Amino acid sequence: MQASLRFLFGLFLLCSCAWAQTEHLPKPRAIVIFYADDLGYNDTSAYGCSKAPCPHLETLAQQGLVFTDAHSSSSVCTPSRYSLLTGTYAWRYRGMGILPGNARLVLPVKGEQLTLPAMMQLAGYRTAAIGKWHLGLGRGEEPPDWNRLISPSPREVGFDESFIMAATGDRVPCVFIQNGRVVNLDAADPILVNYEPSFRFPNEPVAADMTEEQLAACLKPWGRSADKQHDKTVINGISRIGHMSGGKSALWKDEEIADRLNEAAVRFIRENADCPIFLYFCANDIHVPRDPHPRWRGKSQLGIRGDVTVQMDNSLGVVRRALAEAGYKPEETLLIFTSDNGPVIADGYLDGAPRDCAGHNPAAPYSGGKYTLREGGTRMPFIVHWPSVVHPGKSAALISQVDLSRSLARLVGFSDIPQDSMRDSQNMLPALCGLSKQGRSELPEHNHAVNLALRFNHYKLMPGAGGSWQLFDLSTDPAEQHDIAPEQPELVRSLIQRLNAIKQQNGGVNRPLPATVTDT
Ligand code: NG6
Ligand code: CA
User: Fold this and answer.
1) pTM for the full model?
2) To which H or E segment does residue 315 belong?
3) Rounded to an integer, what distance in angstroms lies between the CA atom of residue 297 and that of residue 204?
4) Which of 118, 120, 122, 416 has the fewest beta carbons under 10 Å from its own?
5) Is 117 in contact with 159 (CB distance < 8 Å)?
6) CB 346 less than 6 A from any atom of ligand 1
7) Is it true that domain 446-507 has CATH number 3.30.1120.10?
8) Which residues of 376-406 are buried (b: 16+ CB within 10 A; e: fewer)?
9) 165 lines ligand 1 (CB under 6 A)
10) Does pLDDT of 334 surpass 70?
11) Could you tell me the CATH superfamily of domain 27-190+250-444?
């Protein structure tokens, strides 16, 4: 047998062995996806940065499998979350991008396509979405009416329970929504929302219209807009994207968001302690506006951005403690920690986050971050924690969050995935559980301008200026500084072909979303 054939045969045997071993994995009683927001590869002590102590994440990293080449599906939020929950690349859909706060639901509802949470329900799990949503709410021509039962909402997608923020902390409406209803809403003070920049509600405090003295009087020192998007309604001393009036009794306090979400998670875990649970926990941290609770202020050496990182770590600790107290034993609990996109320092507020990052590169050793196609945009902290089943260590397997749906389907023994669902997801369970070092060989990376790069093993094909292409060898050049496209024209050609082929697969591109997404 030729050496290369022997190698391939060996690889085949190894892979099939790992696949066979996943047959014998126990079915976890609790599956938790802990999703941080805008947290970079190097933002926590679990991945090297010692300036923002994250003891809970460090424990997870010491006891779990730490991935070094795991990716979100996009370098911005909505597409990443869409891909994670549907197993389909968000960039296949027209109009997919960062959604406004009054966008219609972009996810398929039950009966349209099988989503990850709906699959978990069918597999016998009680499911919950807690925290940042940012996938739209309601359907039809009109934006959601915040004063009624909002439908469709996470429930119609497959979550039995939900306690969410509609979009982001910097977008109105600044209220929590529990199972489709705004929490603490006074019917006599209805919520109205409008995203037209020139629109004004009577008596609405709008930062863009204020004098310097008025701004100083009503804004928190870290609540001041740095751009023309974040200078609309002022709520809780922070100016926002979008206009909102009413709902005074329902408004969140930014410095308490983490605690409110933690409480909702603890409630869900306690109340369902006798069932298998699937918790999709989406921290608001470390997205802007960064407004840590006073007890976390100054707890990092990275200023306000590091302090909210410490706050996020506390949420992880709270969730883990609640699981243990509710009787979910470590060997019954699979927890996956990751983030939705890469890091950003200045993102709309003059909040004192140090521009030079206090000597800290949040994506190190990679370059770029949120919004970019560089590795820093999508290469995420990613830890699989399942003591006594998944052995501690590191894995360099190339995996994507889009793979979670088919991998978890495999884990919970669900094989009935309809043809039109989870089409871009690959079963990576052997790699996720450390039974195989083998991940994907190729992965498209997406940014917010709907550009695509392509990872092929340690190579990366990247669109350059004027329709040109760049090629980087990440094994020797992780920061993507040296374009080797001129030296490797054949490889560049074949990777361009491969990227085009991936675009055409699985339903192609430019597909219509189930709901209309508008900004007004
Ligand atoms: C951008 C906002 C940014 C942030 C981001 C969403 C501007 C100029 N920038 O449009 O501040 O809110 O949207 O972040 O408005 S994400 O993590 O949800 O994708
Ligand atoms: Ca994000």
Assistant:
1) 0.96
2) helix 303-325
3) 30
4) 416
5) yes
6) no
7) yes
8) bbbbbbbbbbbbebbeeeebebbbbbbbbbb
9) no
10) yes
11) Alkaline Phosphatase, subunit A (3.40.720.10)
Q: Which residues contact 126 (CB under 8 A, 6 or more apart)?
A: 160, 161, 272, 275, 276, 277, 278
Question: Phi then psi for 393, rounded to 5 degrees?
Answer: 155, -165
Any atom of ligand 1 within 6 Å of the Cβ of 241: yes
Ligand 1 atom 10: residue of nearest CA: 98
202 is written with which tokens? 């009577």
SS3 306: helix
Q: Is 166 in the pocket of ligand 1 (CB under 6 A)?
A: no
Give 269 Cα–ligand 1 centroid separation in angstroms.
31
**Mean pLDDT throughout 42-56?**
94
Q: Say if residues 175 and 257 touch (Cβ distance below 8 Å).
A: no
For residue 91, pLDDT beyond 70? yes
Element (H, E) at 58: helix 55-63
Q: Is the peptide bond before 205 cis (omega within 30 degrees of 0)?
A: no
Beta pairing class for 30-36 and 277-282: parallel
Four-point Cα dihedral 300, 305, 311, 317, nearest 10: -80
Q: Which ligand is nearest to the CA of 78?
A: 1
Question: pLDDT at residue 516 above 90?
Answer: no
Q: How many angstroms is it from 133 CA to the middle of ligand 2?
A: 11
Average pLDDT (318-342) is 97
pLDDT band at 140 (very low <50, low <70, confident <90, very high): confident
- Atom 3 of ligand 1, residue of closest alpha carbon: 347
Domain residues of the chain, as ranges? 27-190+250-444, 192-245, 446-507
Nearest to 399 by CA among 420, 384, 414, 415: 384
At 363-407, the pLDDT tens digits run 999 999 999 999 999 999 999 999 989 999 999 999 999 999 999
